[in-house]
Each structure stands twice: as C-alpha cells, then as structure tokens.
Write the structure tokens for this entry.
Amino acid sequence: MGKLIVIEGSDGSGKATQTKLLFDFLKGQGRKVRMVSYPDYDSPSSSLVKMYLGSQFGHDPYGVNAYVTASFFAVDRFASYLKNWKSFYESSEDAVVICDRYVTSNMLHQTSKLGSLEEKEAFLDWEYDFEFVKGGLPVPDLVLFLDVLPDTAFRMMKGRENKITHKSEKDIHESNRDFLVRSYENSILVGKKYGWRNIQCCDDKGNMESVEVIHNRIQKVILEKWPLMVPCNL
C-alpha cells in the first residue's frame, strides 16, 4: 500500500490551497502522487450530499440526523475510492495520495450535531467502523488539521464561490456560524483521539498566516514523519 495524507479543517481554512501546494511540492520531488478532493461534486455519487448541503432536506444542519448525513458522504467517498484511486494507492509503497477532506470530515462535522461526550464517542466509533472496517477505506497515515479560528474562517469565506452552484450563496454548513464554531471545537476531541497533527494557521492576533508559511509548516511535519520524502534543508 502507499501513503495516505489528509488535509482537514473547518470551512474556509484553506484546505484546497494547501492540498494543491503539497501535491505540487511532492510531484516536484519526483514522488508518485495523486490528489483527491471530497465531496466529489462531479460524480453522481455526491447527489445526496449536494441535496443536503443545498438545503433540500432543510436549512438547519442540526435538523438532519448525523448518522444519515454521514452515510451520504461515505457513499460518495467509497465510489470515488473504487473508481479513482484504489488501484494507484495499492500499486506501490511509494504512491502518495493527498485528500482534501476524507472520513475525518464526518468525524469533525457530524459530531457537532450531538450533545454529550458519550454521544460523540459513540458516533466516532460507529463512523470508524462504518467506513474503515466495513467499508474498507484506507486509514490515513497522517491527518493534518488546519487550525483556523472560526471568526477568521468565516471572514475567509466571504465572497467565496459555492462549489456546488458556483454562485455566492453559502451551503448550510458555511452559512451557519454556530455549526462552524462547534465543528472547530470538535477538532480538539477528534484530533486527540486519532492523533491528528495540528497546523497553526493564524498569528497571535487571529489573522491568517500566508499560504507559504502554512505550507512550510506542513512540509516540516511531513519531514518528521517521513525523513526521506522531502529535502533536509527545511
């Protein structure tokens, strides 16, 4: 099997940008690398995801059951894995797959809909079993959580194009500040439980660091994990 790296974070945290930068960097080092993004909006497998995010099941994310919603995203991932990158991932131990969001997004966001710690822990155990054990998706070798304060992330999303409609309106996650805050707070629980690596993305005043600074921090974590993957002059 190859290596699986996940770039995770709240909406507006810069996941797509950092995924592309890491892909370009590793490609430039001569690595066999593939980039994957979730949800796979170009595939029919994301139809229920688009309905959910597009408010067709209601405008309040808390009003849609966490387990049902998680299954929408899980089916999309499973289809993408089989169609787009399973063969590549299994082809060589040198193959590297970088995911912009993954199973980790269900863990991060859907636990926001649950109240007690016991409910959250039960959901996380169910989610791990559902996608990794029963679904057979690869467990990530490394999850990098882009730590962006909720207020900063909310500012970053202003004027950003909706990935589904390509218009300015936000989906039901992006438009709900409380959901954004609770998802961010869940990162502490989930990150500790599964050993995520935290990438600090804001300065002491809460302003977003430059994409180059964040990318360099990601490179350093990669170097710690796999010393031979990147140059030793960082």
Summary: The beta strands are 3-9, 32-37, 95-100, 142-147, 197-200. The chain has one domain: 3-225.
